[in-house]
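Methods — Computational structure assignment.
A single polypeptide chain was analysed. Its primary sequence is given first, followed by the predicted tertiary structure written as structure tokens.
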Amino acid sequence: MIEYPGAQHAFDSPSRVPSLYLPLLVNPSRCFFVEQTPGVVVHRDSGRPVDFKDACFSRGVTLGYDARAHADATRSIKALLAAVFKRSD
């Protein structure tokens, strides 16, 4: 996983200029989840199933394009796919 400091949701979508704040969307940025078994996602620390009423969820999401992060993500995924599929183009 690569983190792009300052990049928002939809950082790879050029149509998200200027940034847009959506105050009602559910924001799980303070939550930590793991996949316990295939298809079963639980809270990392408690092992309880995810519930959108949990205290770690908040409201408000900012969407915004980040050209630098988008370019780096594109380069990174192309390199990964080339390595996995042994391609040089």
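Note: The longest strand covers residues 20-27.
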